[in-house]
Each structure stands twice: as C-alpha cells, then as structure tokens.
Design goal:
Its EC number is 4.99.1.9. By secondary structure, the protein is α/β, with parallel strands linked by helices. It is 38% helix and 11% strand.
C-alpha cells in the first residue's frame, strides 16, 4: 500500500533499480520550548488516555533543559550533512525532513516534496533496530502522511532497510569503545576492572517478542535484543589492540528509559541497577555505549549523562559515555550508501553488514514488528500480515 511496485510485496530485498527522486528523513521529533512539552508528550502517548499529571512526571526531563529536546537540531544537522554527501556523489536528490510527533511533521515533508514535483520518495528513518516503534510504526507513518497530505494518487514512498549492522552505523561505536578503553588502561585500570555497558531503550517484553519476522526463533527479547547483542559482540571482538597488554574486558547489554506501569514487564536489566552492582564484581570503571541511539537526544542526555552518571559517582566508578553516530562521516556516508542500494537495486550479497543477521530486509516480512497492543494497521513497503 502506497509503496513502489518492487517494495509493495515480494522478495525480501529489492534487487531492481528504483528511480527515486527525493529522500525524506523521518524522525521522532521533540519539543523546542517549555510550552511545547506537554503537547508533544500528548502526541507521543496519543490513544493511551494518559492524563497530563502523569505526563508532567516525564516532562521534567525536558524542563531541565529549558523544554528543548536536542533532537530537532540534530536532525537539521543530519539533513544538511546528508544533502552535502548526496550532492558530492552527484545523485541530484533533495533531502526533506519530517517527524512523527512534532513539527515539521512527516505529512508536511511529503506535501512539500510533492509540491516540488517529486513523486517517488525514499524514507530514511532515524532508527536502526527492529521493534514496533522503531520500524513498523514508521511504515505506518508513511501511510498516514500520504493520506493526511492527500497524496494517495500522487506519490509512492518506500523505507530503507534497518541499518543496525551497517558498518557506517557501527564504526562510531567501535571508535568510541576503543578510545575509552585506551584512556582507562592508560590510567592504570586493568581490562578486567572495566565494564562496557551497551545501552538501548527498553521496550515492553510483549513488543520485543513480536519484533522481527516470525519465521525464526529470535530468543528472549526477540529480534530487537538479538540485533543489539550481535552488534555489541562485533564491537567487542574488534577491541583488540585497544587493550594494553591483552586481557578481556567484560561487557553486557543493558536497558534504559523504561516507562509504563510497574505491572507491565519491560526488557531488563536497567542500566542503573547494573552500575550499582559493578563494584561488587571488582569493577573500577564503566564505559557506557548508547548503542540504540543515532544521536544525543533526550534519553541520552537525561538517562545516561545525568542519571547514570550520578549512579556511577555514587558507586565510586570512573565513567565514560561514548559518542553516538550523530553526523560522523562514516554514518552519513553509510546512510547515503543505503539510498544508493535502492537506486541501483544492489544484490543482497553485495550489501555491507557486520553481523550474520544482515543485510536486513527492504520489504518487511509477514508478521514483522506487530504492535502488541493494537495489532496490525496499514503500513507501506511490506508483505501484508
């Protein structure tokens, strides 16, 4: 529905060229002032009946930073960097930008692209992993945006594959972990006294179990956890010479930013709980890697740079938080590589990936990333459930 013919159904990888004429950067969005905070959170939680009093409990994260989430500014920077790389390669594609939860909205980006004469759009979402909110919901957003803009008979829109294990996304994390471990060992901390915690957004276990296609058993945490673990294993396997004199650095996958009622199970362990336990394991320093995030938005600034930092200080631990990809040249180049895959119909065997799970699908498979609460709703670029 609303996808180009090659991406509407069929094989998991589109291996024929598609003549896209514009790119749309799609993201979550965030408030840009104190008056925006509650309306933004209403958008995020629409349909769940959450009263403003409960939303205010989350709002204080934003109010701590003047009511401004950094995500919109980061997306403007990414849009500019993407356009520069697209232009450098001579692809002649404009890059538009629209959000799910705050202006500029995705339907506004689609409307502008259509007004500028573009008809075959390729959406680049700022989420790397499988889950309802980070994958299928963006495909639902495409349908909603086309309908809200009244473009049902005017445009098609596809979505690039998930890029969790594309080398351009992974490279900034590799560099960050290696630099942090070198810094700590240079201070005299032994490798075995350093813990690397790969942190990502927790999601309800019901959603996690439905992440990814249902044609295989992904294990506890579904494809969402499996993808993060595979990337973390790759990063740690490449640590190599960063460990002075050899030695093994312990690591684990942890979760953050949990919300929802206490009665609802979410993926664990929580990053703060793990940090608190580290001194009892003989750990003196912790490296926190925001593996689930493409930029330093609110969950990184508050949950890691504020709360996790305070927890580490209370535990007497030296802490380093490594960078997110942001506008790292490798990441920007990797995103444009994903665009070129679809422009040229690159065979799946030639698509770069650093884990056995990739390259991920262009055309979502049946049952992929169902909303555990609402079920399946119309979504672009995939086989119908």
């Amino acid at each position: 529905m609303y996808a180009s013919a090659p991406a509407a159904s069929g094989p998991e990888h589109v291996e024929v060229p598609v003549a896209y004429d514009a790119i749309v950067l799609a993201s979550f969005g965030g408030p840009e002032g104190q008056d925006d905070v509650i309306p933004f959170l209403r958008n995020v939680t629409r349909g769940r009946g959450i009263p403003d009093e409960r939303l205010e409990e989350v709002a204080h994260h934003y109010r701590h930073f003047g009511g401004v989430s950094p995500i919109n500014a980061q997306n403007r920077e990414l849009q500019t960097a993407l356009q520069s790389e697209v232009d450098r390669r001579g692809l002649a594609l404009p890059v538009y930008w629209g959000n799910r939860n705050w202006g500029p909205y995705l339907h506004e980006a689609f409307a502008q692209a259509a007004a500028d004469g573009h008809r075959t759009l390729l959406v680049l979402a700022t989420s790397a992993y499988s889950s309802y909110s980070s994958d299928r919901q963006y495909r639902e957003d495409i349908v909603n945006a086309i309908e809200e803009a009244g473009l049902q008979d005017a445009v098609t829109a596809d979505k690039v594959r998930l890029f969790f294990d594309h080398p351009g996304f992974v490279a900034p994390f590799e560099e960050g972990v290696q630099a942090a471990v070198r810094e700590l060992t240079a201070e005299g901390i032994a490798p075995a006294e350093i813990a690397v915690l790969f942190s990502t957004h927790s999601i309800p276990t019901g959603d996690a179990q439905k992440s990814g296609p249902r044609d295989r058993d992904w294990g506890e945490g579904g494809a969402y956890a499996a993808q993060h673990l595979a990337v973390a294993e790759y990063v740690m396997a490449g640590l190599g010479d960063a460990v002075e004199g050899g030695g093994t650095v312990p690591w684990e996958l942890v979760y953050q930013s949990r919300s929802g009622p206490p009665s609802q199970p979410w993926l664990e362990p929580d990053v703060n709980d793990v940090i608190t336990s580290l001194p009892g394991r003989g750990i003196k320093a912790v490296v926190i890697v925001p593996l689930g995030f493409v930029s330093d938005h609110m969950e990184v600034l508050w949950d890691l740079d504020t709360e996790a930092k305070e927890t580490a200080e209370e535990a007497g631990l030296r802490m380093i938080r490594t960078p997110t990809p942001g506008t790292h040249p490798a990441f920007v180049a990797g995103l444009v590589d994903l665009v070129e895959e679809r422009l040229h119909g690159t065979p799946s065997a030639e698509r770069p990936h650093v884990t056995p799970l990739g390259p991920w699908y262009d055309v979502a498979r049946p049952g992929d990333c169902e909303n555990a609460r609402l079920g399946f709703r119309p979504a672009a670029a995939g086989i119908a459930p």
